[in-house]
Specification:
609 residues; mainly alpha; 1% strand; Sodium/glucose cotransporter; 26 helices
Length: 609
């Protein structure tokens, strides 16, 4: 494909702008670690919320969402539950408040706040740091595949390199160039440049989403869509089996559904529900969204930030997803039919852009999708070095170095992390395979220990270490032992292995010191099984009030999940022009918004301090 000169100019202007911003504010970001990684806790929560939304609007995930909408129709709205997609709801209602009260720099440092500084705590500190770094490697590989596939379709130059030493396809070369540019501004400018560029990226992406939705609605009718899809494609609800037969429409889609392992959709739904509760209650993995919470000025602002993230992310993103999905269904079927069984469903998004977006807007949209990729990638590589520098180098190797030394090591560790992640990307099979591994296997190893750390006083540093170790081993070995089993169905096994490690490590060792538990509960104030600790606090502080908000928080979480789901299905029904179901979803959105306004937002100042 040959882009018009104006499209290329728009893309180049955007790339140059991001580099300029990163270098302009690098001096301000490099004062110290607090400034580099958390912006000195001075960044306003609306900017953090938009930045967080932009960081989650990644191009690989968007390509995956377009492909599953094409295949599964409106039912695809459930499939992001494979991710801990409710995490933002749990964070909005109470977890961000608990997390921000800690006043730490990283998620690994939070472990010291929870378990103290004894041997068990140190082991926990090290293993959560290792988990954070491994997860970033996985995400970098995931981004590498997505941006390479995307760029190759749009940019006209053949950048393949074939020699005795290096064998790069054009996908590899484009991915390396874009990742190098992103790494440069993110590493140099720290969180300041990441947040500022992500807000700009959010504006570009929102405009792009509106343009795509408008093109789809004005060029495709509801009748045209229904002619191209099997019965049930436009139905949100389902029975135990998927009952979506593409025979006679695009037969190869049936093969894809079988390979995904999603025919038994009811069982898949129950598994996603089970997983979603544990993964979301565990809180964010130690990456960029946790960093945004720790960057907020106050616990109240941390909660508001996550609410804005949900609102800003889902509706515009699904306008784009639905727009490209229906354009591909109606107008690209001949191309897909010609591919036979060799369809790469992950290129539906770039194919639709190539065919349907006009000159000028095409450059804006590609710049926007590059912005989405760069925002997410930059957020990860800004968050990950904090664990290496602050939680390993500073804590165990050189605690008395000056700020410039720590910042230099942050630069070096960022480069090393990117290089290793790219190496993994060369050997990954597809976006879908990495999605399932990250969301099901890796998160399965994280969930058990990180739920118990919030709610159970007896859970100690050794329990956390052995729980995380068991989960990491199971998530690493499980896919190899059961290669033909979808990763989501391995989640209970991985979770069970992690729970065994948690319980064994906890009861085979002594409880953490009273002073550590008392300090943690007084500062964080979670609900859960904390009665022995609360009783000890009341011996010296009889008027101390424990957290009794469990019922209120859980009701708000349930309403919040429904609220978030309306932000997914409203844009889908709007684009496929099913206005009756759009109207129903909109009414539910208004009711749940009012409920959360009264029972969550208006009460934040009373309990989120």
């Amino acid at each position: 494909m040959n882009l018009a000169n104006i499209d290329i100019a728009i893309i180049l202007c955007y790339l140059i702008m991001t580099l300029i911003i990163g270098f302009m504010i690098s001096k301000h970001a490099s004062k110290n670690l607090q400034s580099y990684f958390l912006g000195e806790n001075k960044i306003p929560w609306p900017l953090l919320g938009l930045s967080n939304a932009s960081g989650m609007f990644d191009i690989s995930g968007t390509m995956w969402m377009v492909s599953i909408l094409f295949i599964y129709g409106v039912k695809s709205a459930w499939l992001p539950w494979l991710w801990p997609v409710w995490n933002q709801v749990f964070m909005m209602i109470f977890l961000a408040i608990w997390l921000r009260r800690s006043n730490v720099l990283t998620g690994a440092q939070w472990i010291t706040h929870r378990f103290g500084d004894a041997r068990g705590a140190r082991l926990s500190h090290i293993i959560v740091t290792i988990f954070a770094i491994i997860s970033v490697f996985g995400f970098i590989a995931y981004f590498f595949i997505g941006i390479g596939k995307f760029a190759t379709i749009f940019f006209p130059w053949d950048l393949s390199v074939q020699s005795g030493i290096i064998n790069f396809t054009s996908e590899h070369s484009y991915a390396l160039i874009i990742i190098a540019i992103t790494s440069l501004y993110a590493i140099k400018g720290g969180i300041y440049s990441v947040v500022i560029t992500e807000v700009i990226q959010f504006v570009i992406m929102t405009i792009s989403c509106l343009v795509v939705a408008f093109i789809a609605i004005t060029n495709v009718s509801a009748e045209q869509i229904l002619e191209k899809v099997p019965a049930g494609w436009d139905n949100l609800f389902f029975s135990m089996e998927l009952n979506l037969d593409w025979t006679g429409y695009l037969d190869s889609v049936n093969t894809k559904i079988d390979s995904d392992g999603f025919q038994l959709f009811g069982y898949l739904f129950m598994m996603m529900l089970f997983k979603g509760i544990f993964a979301s209650m565990a809180g964010p993995v130690p990456s960029y969204d946790m960093q945004r919470v720790l960057s907020a000025k106050t616990p109240i602002e941390a909660a508001k930030m996550n609410g804005l993230t949900i609102l800003a992310l889902f509706f515009p993103r699904y306008l784009m997803v639905a727009g490209f999905g229906v354009l591909a269904l109606v107008h690209l079927m001949p191309e897909f039919t010609a591919m036979g069984e060799n369809i790469d469903f992950e290129i539906i998004l770039p194919m639709a852009i190539e065919r349907f977006i006009p000159v000028g807007f095409k450059g804006l949209l590609i710049a926007g999708l590059l912005a989405a990729f760069m925002g997410t990638f930059a957020a990860f590589i800004n968050a990950a070095p904090a664990y290496i520098v602050n939680d390993l180098y500073k804590k165990y190797i050189n605690p008395n170095a000056d700020s410039k030394t720590y910042i230099r090591y942050s630069y070096v560790s960022s480069v090393v992390i990117v290089v290793i992640g790219l190496f993994m990307g060369f050997y990954a099979q597809s976006i879908n395979s990495l999605t399932l591994w990250i969301t099901s296997a890796l998160y399965g190893g994280y969930a058990a220990a990180n739920v118990l750390k919030w709610i159970w006083w007896r859970f100690n540093g050794y329990g956390y270490f052995f729980g995380m170790l068991g989960g990491l081993l199971a998530s690493t070995l499980g896919p190899g032992i059961f290669p033909d089993t979808s990763a989501i169905y391995l989640f209970p096994i991985i979770l069970f292995a992690s729970f065994i490690g948690c319980i064994a490590g906890t009861f085979l060792t002594a409880p953490d010191e009273d002073s550590v538990l008392i300090n943690f509960y007084k500062q964080t104030r979670p609900w859960g099984f904390w009665k022995p600790v609360i009783n000890k606090i009341k011996l010296t502080e009889p008027d101390f009030e424990e957290n009794k908000d469990f019922k209120r928080d859980m009701i708000n979480v349930l309403v919040g999940i429904v609220w978030q789901m309306t932000l997914v299905i409203m844009p889908i029904y709007l684009v496929i022009q099913n206005f009756s179901y759009f109207g129903i979803a909109f009414v539910v959105f208004l009711i749940t918004s009012l409920f959360l306004k009264i029972f969550w937002y208006d009460k934040l100042s009373k309990y989120a301090v």
